[in-house]
Amino acid sequence: MPILTLGALIGLIAGKLMIMCNLISALYLPNIIIFSLAGYFACISKAPFTAVILITEMVGSLSHLLPLAFISLVAYLMVDILGGAPIYESLSKRIDLKHELKHIDSRLVSFEFLVSPLGELNNKEVREIRWPQNVILIKVLRNNSELLAKGDLILKPKDRLILLAPVEDIAEIKHELSVLN
Fold it and tell me: For a Cys staple, 37 with which of 7, 27, 48, 82, CB 3.0–4.6 Å?
């Protein structure tokens, strides 16, 4: 339902903008909304045929079948070219990862590490750093805000790194990080 609602809203906004710019007649607004529903559903779920069938059933007419198929296929191909993943598959992988971490969870602990202004970690991208084994950078705290620990994030002095590691490796990991810092 939220996917369909967002698709309809996108179609409504796009249609209203086109009407205001005198690109289309207001007569075509319902069609723009219907096509937007199918396109958005097809790209989010990566299921173009399901989108066509679902929207055709919702509309109750076969007159939109060919445009719905075309738009759904184009939306699917664009997401595929851009490397997008189906939303339910992505959510499933996240749930699986959380489930795996719960099994290991009893042995993992998080700890904090401060970036020194003089160390090797300063002004380096996260991906450039040779991290110790068995450690995961969860997030970076900078000036009272949380940053995602993405590969292109550049670490700054006084950044607080929140790391996750097995309890038995903490001392060794802290020592390796202090050598870098």
Answer: 7
**Cα angle vertex 31, ends 27, 33, to 5°?**
115
DSSP H stretches of helix in the chain: 2-20, 29-45, 48-59, 65-81, 87-104, 170-180
- Round to whole Å and give the CA distance between 17 and 11: 10
The pLDDT tens digits along the chain (181 residues) read 778 888 889 999 999 999 999 999 999 999 999 999 999 888 888 888 888 888 888 888 888 889 999 998 998 888 888 877 776 666 666 666 655 555 554 578 888 888 888 888 888 888 888 888 888 888 999 998 888 888 888 899 989 999 988 888 888 888 888 887 7
pTM over 0.70: no
Could you give the 3-state DSSP secondary structure of residue 119? coil
For the record, the structure tokens of 11 come out as 């179609």
The answer on 112 and 64 residing in a single domain is no
34 and 71 inside one domain = yes
Q: Are residues 128 and 175 in the same domain?
A: yes
Containing H/E element for 61? none
Boundary-marking domain end, from 81, 113, 147? 81
Range of the domain at 131: 101-180
